[in-house]
């Protein structure tokens, strides 16, 4: 199911005690005095801490815990810096016999409140499809409820998600069925190389990565980037990263030759750069891991079936609504 996803809970940073001004003890009252002892003066307020205001992250207005964690964590990195951090963290996974090409559109982060993971993923995707101001999450929720697609933010139907995207974002929608492998694989990779978003339902593990729980941990993510491990980088239109040798980016404002896309069973490798509503960071997922998780979404979570809440589930259940399906979204004026 699309879980009523509670945001990730970063470990609490140790608190630094605030120095207090020393208190000078008052002299004892005269023995002959009949007046009550004078109370000590109140403690001075703690000194103000000067520094940069914490950055705004959408969705934290109602979550004091996440807001406090963000303030302790410091500024949220830019998308480019966050991707660079991620690649450095996982560089040991990249085979030295391959060269790597990164295609990645700039996605904002949005932390979900309750079971809104699908709508949050759609909002993030919408920033690449709609005007720069985007479409507010509140509008997506309102339209989804008015059309009967959701009861409280959950989305169990890829078809309904596609109709919502068309109506609320005014974009083109391609509804993929049959999984992310086979003939759909090349279609998905070409879509991501072109800089357009992919919406994917999958089972979410404890670290937000794809797993296989038969749909009991169903969740939504948006991917707007892909890391390709190829035998050779095309000769024109690409520049090597100055910090990560062997990693290439399409040169800005330059026509670049499309790379040969790694096929199933080929010596190449494919990773998706994705975001979802429980973290403001990009994540790097093996393509086959995402494919396999998406292809086994069959059952409604037993814990959700007995939690007393109402959910909108299509005829045929989770398997009919989510299993082996995804959405390719493109701007309305895009020519295929």
From TrEMBL:
- What segment(s) does the record annotate as region Disordered? 1-55
Reaction(s) the record says it catalyses: N-terminal N(alpha)-acetyl-L-methionyl-L-aspartyl-[protein] + H2O = N-terminal L-aspartyl-[protein] + N-acetyl-L-methionine; N-terminal N(alpha)-acetyl-L-cysteinyl-L-glutamyl-[protein] + H2O = N-terminal L-glutamyl-[protein] + N-acetyl-L-cysteine; N-terminal N(alpha)-acetyl-L-methionyl-L-glutamyl-[protein] + H2O = N-terminal L-glutamyl-[protein] + N-acetyl-L-methionine; N-terminal N(alpha)-acetyl-L-cysteinyl-L-aspartyl-[protein] + H2O = N-terminal L-aspartyl-[protein] + N-acetyl-L-cysteine
Q: Give the source's domain of life in one word.
A: Eukaryota
Swiss-Prot/TrEMBL keywords: Aminopeptidase, Hydrolase, Protease
> Which biological process terms from the Gene Ontology are attached to this UniProt entry?
protein processing
Q: Does the keyword NAD apply?
A: no
Give GO MF terms, alphabetically: cysteine-type aminopeptidase activity; initiator methionyl aminopeptidase activity
Question: In which residue ranges is the amino acid composition biased (Pro residues)?
Answer: 7-48
The answer on whether this UniProt entry bears the keyword Flavoprotein reads no
Family, as annotated: Belongs to the ACTMAP family.
What's the protein called, per UniProt?
Actin maturation protease
| Protein source organism | Vulpes vulpes
């Amino acid at each position: 199911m699309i879980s009523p996803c509670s945001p990730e809970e970063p470990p609490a940073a140790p608190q630094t005690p605030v120095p207090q001004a020393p208190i000078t003890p008052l002299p004892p009252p005269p023995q002959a005095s009949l007046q009550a002892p004078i109370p000590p003066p109140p403690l001075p307020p703690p000194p103000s801490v000067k520094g940069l205001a914490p950055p705004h992250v959408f969705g934290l207005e109602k979550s004091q815990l996440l807001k406090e964690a963000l303030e302790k964590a410091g500024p949220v990195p830019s998308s480019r810096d966050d991707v660079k951090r991620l690649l450095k963290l996982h560089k040991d996974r990249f085979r030295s016999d391959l060269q790597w090409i990164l295609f990645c559109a700039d996605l904002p982060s949005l932390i979900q409140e309750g079971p809104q993971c699908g709508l949050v993923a759609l909002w993030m995707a919408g920033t690449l499809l709609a005007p720069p101001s985007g479409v507010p999450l509140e509008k997506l929720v309102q339209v989804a409820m008015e059309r009967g697609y959701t009861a409280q933010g959950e989305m169990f139907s890829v078809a309904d998600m596609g109709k919502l995207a068309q109506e609320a974002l005014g974009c083109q929608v391609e509804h993929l069925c049959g999984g992310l492998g086979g003939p759909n694989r090349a279609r998905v990779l070409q879509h991501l190389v072109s800089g357009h978003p992919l919406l994917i339902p999958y089972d979410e593990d404890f670290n937000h990565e794809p797993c296989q729980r038969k749909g009991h941990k169903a969740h939504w993510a948006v991917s707007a980037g892909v890391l390709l491990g190829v035998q050779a980088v095309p000769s024109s239109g690409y520049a090597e990263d100055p910090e990560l040798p062997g990693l290439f980016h399409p040169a800005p404002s330059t026509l670049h030759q499309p790379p040969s896309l790694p096929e199933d069973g080929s010596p190449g490798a494919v990773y998706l750069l994705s975001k979802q509503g429980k973290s403001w960071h990009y994540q790097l997922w093996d393509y086959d891991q995402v494919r396999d998780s998406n292809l086994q979404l069959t059952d409604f979570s037993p814990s959700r079936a007995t939690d007393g809440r109402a959910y909108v589930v299509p005829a045929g259940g989770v398997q009919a609504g989510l299993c082996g399906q995804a959405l390719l979204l493109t701007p309305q004026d895009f020519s295929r």
